[in-house]
Amino acid sequence: MSSFKAYIDVRDYDTQYDPDEVDAGEFNAKSEIRLLPGEAIISSAEQVLKFATLSERQGLSGALFVTNFKISFVTADKSSFRLVDRSVRNKILDECDICLANVDTVYHVQDSNNRKKKLPPAGNIHTKIQSIEIHCKDFRVHTFSFKFTPKPQEKAVVNIVNALLHHSFPLKPQLLFVFDYRGPVSKVDGTPLFLVASDWHHEIKRLGCDKKWRISHVNENFMMSRSLPETFVVPGQLLDEQIYKASHHFKDNRVPVWSWSLPDGCAVVRSAGIHPGITDSRAMAVMLDVIRSTHPLKKFPHIVDLDSLLPNLKDIQQSYMKLKDLCVSDTTTQFWEQDVRYFSLLENTKWLSTVATCLSISKELALFVYQSQSIVFLQEQDGRDLSCLVSSLIQIILDSHYRTTSGFQSLIQKEWIAMGHPFCDRLHHTSRLENEECPLFLLFLDCVWQMLQQFPSSFQFTETYLTSLWDAAHLTVFDTFLFNCSRDLWLANKDTQKPLPPRSVWDWKRLYADEEKALFENPLYAVKNAKKKSKTNTKDLTNRPKSEFRQSSDDEDFDLFDKSSKSAPKKKSMSHVLSDSALNHKKPACQVLPVKADIYALNLWNYCYLRWNPLVQIFGGGSPVVYMERCQLVKDIVSLHNKVLRLSDETQSPLGSVEGLAFSLLPRAANPKLELTSAYPYSPGNTPTMFDQQHLRYNPLKDQWILVSPHRLQRPWMGQTEEPSEQGHNNFDVNNPLRPGAVRGNGKTNPLYEHTYVFDNDFPALLETNPGPGPGLATDSSEHPLLKCASARGICRVMCFHPLSSMTLPLMTLKEIIHVIDKWADQMKDLGEKYTWVQIFENRGDVMGCSNPHPHCQIWASSFLPDEPRIKDKMQLEYYRKHGRPLLLDYIEIELKKKDRIVAENEHWLILVPYWATWPFETMLLPKRHVLRLQDLKREEKESLAAAMKLLLTKYDNLFQVSFPYSMGWHGAPTGDYFEEDNQHWQLHALYFPPLLRSANVKKFMVGYEMLAQVQRDLTPETVRCC
């Protein structure tokens, strides 16, 4: 028996699919997965359906793998890749891969009622799994259905879900993939990791404060504090013995440590709170007094209690969860329901309010530090969360070095990594402490993004960089964001059995190609600094003499404290923390970002939070398009500037090179028609075609145009719904006139048939004998040419497929289906000798008007050629005379090359969705050989036809999990007198016309425009092929 190449395999063994009768090797290509060094497959399942985003019907069939690093979906048909939701891919993850550390929640979805049940982390599932939804920390949702997975692999499905739960939520960090990864060791250039004393020394020397501050080794081998780094910066007069003695008074022994300062006394210091239960405050007083000694004027540090000023971790986590609920939609209906109340729902999340609070506090502290030339002492109970965020934001506002890419990365290393922010707990890399989860790092990146929007030329990096950085925090091939503190990383490196080699995320070339890294570069920053370099003739602004540090000018940076500035702050929101005398202190202009922290000045970071939602993406618009235009504009500016200098023969240096920006690597360079999306490169641009918008398609078989309107799929359905037909019909219903032995309405008794049974219809539409149209009706134009009438003769028969009423064609065996095909051919031959046309058709389902659920079809033979075949005969004949080949044979060749609409094929038959399909899920069944009529089929063609019909009808039943209603019929060369004519222009084909539109209870109606103007459909045939 011929084997199938199923492009979207929806075979279901619940429909009694016999693997012995049809070769199980239906897929043309073996599913393969790309593995990293040290990666191993834990579990896998074949014939899994991956739904497209916000689609319950469109998807791809393939294999699902779970490894010790990722979840990977591999399609069986490589030609289908263009239909997948394409995202930015890197050297670590393929298009349909999900890093296990990125998994946030896994749900079991019941297909029957679409109810979701959250599966427990590290749980053990024993029940049958139908579908799962994987909600990721990057706000993406992946849906996989196992309803088409063969029964022998049901255990594999359970295993794959259990493997997903166990390896996505390991009990300890040592089970993360980074410990198994055997890839190359990272080589980071230009980003200090602050794991050694030399990095701290370079930093304090860069800021010119190495005279007042020194590096302490009191925590060597982490003997004092488990969460502080081995080396850190403290006041120069503070002895290590004093530090060690005072450390016991602070929580987790986290003594006050230096974060940033200038020679004039401006400084930021951070510390944990006094250990609970300790009332002696002398240790804190001693530390504060020594810190005061670093100030030229011996100013006492201003203590800022961050716990009282900022939301706590629980509130931030709750705000984040509400934001996620708003940004992540499971269905299109849910999205549109939320869209009506979008702004109120966004306000209720309080996420932007939290961002505004963080920016406001940081801005006013930065203002205070510079205006008063004072020391800010940031105190937090744990000293590892809010202080990381606020300290980092203060430094970005004050120090332009941290607005460069390398400076920003060093800031994260210094204030977050080295200072022990518990990334493992906050990002929920393990399942041991779920209540410790809180996306503080995302909140920080959001605050930086807000500043980037306000000052687009002041940052070297872009929002693509910030978004990629957030994604990289969930990649377990790098160690940067996997541990709770430097000590955990140190222990992993020192492990004698499985030492962890250094693999930093800042080694971006391990993750992205040059054209992808180019998207990290801000063109506006590049051209502005190129101008500065041209004027100052220096190599790097960040390496200017210290005397220039605070006097430097920036196009968007100005003195926050200049009384003549219209943008100067008008009120003090931290008056209880900052003294009036400090605020009124006059000082020179300084390079500070005048951040607007009011909530009206902030926006939701759509590029990060909504990038996976296709309903909000803008084709040809959004920030990526603005970015690309800026790149091109910068290129033009540099070119024109240098051209002017050459023409004017001035001695001024030309602008620096801006090569490496994205404009030099634009995908549009190769394809000028490429249209970017607002989520590029995560949802990259495509080449738009007419098929993406409303368009007309021509049906050459009927000389008919069809209006296709894909955009209408987004509209909610408020119309009529149909109740699905009941399953499991009674095989012994005495009222069923089609069952064996039943007495029909005309008194005749059916034989006890065992296979097929054909009889004349008791209530036929056509009679064999007909005297004429009747009195008063002319058979010609003698009365009037507008009132024509002709005689009609024929015969109507009923053919039962099977003796059991509960049986349908997809449930029948191949041998039983072959019996049906043989009987069709016999009837076509028998009736065709007498009649011009023999129409075999089957109506299945109540919604199609089928009055009896018993498996049967009808055969109507007529003395005339009906309209549908008459038009087809005319159009095929015209094509044949013009091209010398049958129309449908040429069409078969086109579809076999494109494969855009093919559902399945074998050696003899092709199943496809016609390019010009009228009904939503219409299909056509075609022999690959030139065949005129059913009776011309060879034996092997009938056998493979039975397999094709069984596969197609099984797909239909599985589509909405119902006995799929349809009308089907065969069209071939006319019979009767046509036997004497040349019918080589004909090609045998079967047509299936299902009426269902969106679900089992939503029907497509041919009314209104369809009846009065033109046929219209919403789903494109290319989309239907993937359902």
UniProtKB/TrEMBL annotation:
Catalytic activity of the protein: alpha-D-galactose 1-phosphate + UDP-alpha-D-glucose = alpha-D-glucose 1-phosphate + UDP-alpha-D-galactose
GO molecular function, one term: zinc ion binding
Cited Pfam families: 3-PAP, GalP_UDP_tr_C, GalP_UDP_transf, Myotub-related
Pathway membership: Carbohydrate metabolism; galactose metabolism
Chain intervals with Basic and acidic residues compositional bias: 537-553
Record-annotated Myotubularin phosphatase domain positions: 194-609
This protein's record includes keyword Transferase: yes
Cofactor(s) listed in the protein's UniProt record: Zn(2+)
Keyword entries, A-Z: Carbohydrate metabolism, Galactose metabolism, Metal-binding, Nucleotidyltransferase, Transferase, Zinc
Annotated coiled-coil segments of the chain: none
Region Disordered, annotated ranges: 535-556, 720-746
GO biological process entries: galactose catabolic process via UDP-galactose, Leloir pathway
One GO cellular component term: cytoplasm
Enzyme Commission number, as recorded: 2.7.7.12
Protein family membership: Belongs to the protein-tyrosine phosphatase family. Non-receptor class myotubularin subfamily.
Protein name, entry field: Galactose-1-phosphate uridylyltransferase
